[in-house]
Amino acid sequence: MTVTTEPDHKTTVIKIPEAVGVFDSFEDLQKAFYDLRMVGFSRYDISLLGTEEALKEKLGTTYWRSPELEDDPNAPRAAFVSEEAIGELEGGIAGGFFFLGSYVAMAAMLTAASTLAASIAAIAIGGVPAAIIGALLARRVGQHHKEYYATQIEHGGILLWVRVKDKEHEDLAVKIMKEHSGRDVHVHGWSE
Q1: Do residues 169 and 191 make contact, with C-beta atoms less than 8 angstroms apart?
Q2: CATH 3.30.70 domain span(s) along the chain
Q3: pLDDT at 5
Q4: What b/e readout covers 11-49, taking b as 16+ CB neighbours within 10 angstroms?
Q5: Architecture of domain 2-81+157-188
Q6: pTM
Q7: Helices 116-154 and 83-109: crossing angle, nearest 10°?
């Protein structure tokens, strides 16, 4: 089935049922996600509402509310990213910059004529500014992640879609979402 909204824009949907629910907090959403994964749902079958930029690109600049997009096949989708994954990314960015700055300084100073004290000083001088830059960039990544969820909550809640292959999985997904404070949880007969 294909849904057309504009002459040059088509959205293809497939006839695989999908459970959908709205969450009022990231914590409840994350708990539901982990429980869904624990009982065997693939991360590829779980999606969230896309970013505000993706919404504007796909749906225009009209004001949107999450409940209006629950059953809209044109609503852009995004993968779930856990707090742990964001923390790992932040650590990787900060550590990578520190390593890079230290490495550049060390490479410049480790010559046959350089002393150990001069080399250590060069590493500290090169590594500390790079670590600060890395920490600032890592903080920005974490802030962007929080803003993404805050924006959705402001617009009525965080949308979660789960592709289900049969009635048993439909019931399981709905149960898990409701157990974690999902509201307006229901199943529609298609998925994007």
Answers
A1: no
A2: 2-81+157-188
A3: 45
A4: bebeeebbbbbbbbebebbbbbbebbeeeebeeebbbbb
A5: 2-Layer Sandwich (3.30)
A6: 0.68
A7: 160
